[in-house]
Design goal:
The protein is an alpha/beta fold. The protein is built from 14 helices and eight strands.
């Protein structure tokens, strides 16, 4: 059962016709002859729709319930994955997956948010919103990467860090801040990939990297469009306007110099062809890691620092003479 977003209604209608013809084709093979034409029409319609998506529509795609998550890409991209649990201080946070794996024969560390699949699974994974122990677990594994000289690959997919009282009591802000500080100084290559929704400090805590990549229909922002609309206008109807103002799409962030590359998605989004999406991510990551490994560690850390310092920098125009 496929789930469609509002703007995909025309595509859904054609798909329903195709499904009906397939059922009729079981008793009347002539009905199957009409399917290729409808499939071509649906593909053309998809290309038209996806070529002019608004930032809010892209946000909806980034949150699509069938969109592949970290656990999916671990299965599709890596070999010999061994998950590591716990922060050795409080407990294990299931919204953050960490472990050892192999990528095209190269030993790497994998860290990523996990939203879960279905209501029960999403509750178990806290909808991808990590507690302090999730970030401390990620930090512990990053320190292992540094000790054994392993590249770090992170997958960002969270609406933000968990905003509950318990998280604050256990030091949420300190945990995130320490991750930022430590990641900025690690000597090993770090690649961060936004695979869905990258929200606020919860996303930033595992995305201080040498190379920041985004999937074509992912988003990365200091706040959600809903939060922005509530704060600035106190009006839920302003969500679309908020998404436009936040400049949260991959194209916007590439133009602003916040990210280094965009990984294209299959027609309709990553959930239409997870296997192909995994292949594209794997190919891009391998290429980026190989390039980073050629740079001396000290220079790599320096370049990472300079990259981060450039984000948000601007030059004020000279004042005109009075």
């Amino acid at each position: 059962m496929k789930e469609y977003l509002d703007f995909e209604t025309p595509v859904m209608q054609i798909q329903e016709k195709i499904d009906q013809l397939k059922d009729l084709g079981k008793t009347n093979s002539r009905k199957l002859d009409e399917i290729p034409k409808l499939q071509k029409k649906m593909e053309e319609l998809q290309r038209e729709i996806y070529s002019k998506l608004s930032p809010w529509q892209i946000t909806q795609l980034a949150r699509h319930p069938r969109r592949p998550g970290t656990s999916d890409y671990i299965k599709l991209i890596f070999e010999d994955f061994v998950e590591l649990h716990g922060d050795r201080l409080y407990g294990d946070d299931k919204s953050m997956i960490t472990g050892l794996a192999r990528l095209e024969g190269r030993s790497v560390i994998v860290i990523g948010h996990e939203k879960g699949k279905g209501v029960k699974d999403r509750i178990v994974h806290n909808f991808g919103m990590s507690h302090p122990e999730g970030y401390r677990k990620a930090l512990r594994i990053m320190e292992l990467a540094e000790k054994f000289n392993k590249p770090i690959i992170t997958f960002v997919d969270t609406p933000g860090a968990y905003p509950g009282v318990q998280a604050e009591e256990r030091g949420q802000s300190e945990a995130i801040a320490k991750n930022l500080w430590v990641m900025s100084q690690l000597s090993v290559p770090i690649i961060a990939v936004v695979i869905g929704e990258g929200g606020s400090g919860g996303a930033l805590a595992i995305s201080v990297a040498d190379q920041m990549l985004m999937l074509e229909y992912s988003v990365y922002s200091v706040i959600s469009p809903e939060g922005c609309a509530a704060i600035l206008w106190d009006d839920p109807a302003k969500i679309s306007e908020a998404a436009e103002s936040l400049r949260l799409t991959a194209k916007d962030l590439l133009a602003l110099g916040v990210i280094e590359d965009i990984i294209p998605e299959p027609l309709g989004g990553a959930h239409y062809d997870p296997k192909k999406m995994g292949e594209l991510i794997s190919k891009t990551i391998c290429k980026k890691v190989s390039a980073l490994e050629l740079i001396p560690p000290e220079e790599r850390v320096k370049q990472r620092y300079e990259r981060l310092r450039k984000i948000g920098a601007y030059t004020e125009p000279a004042s005109s003479p009075s």
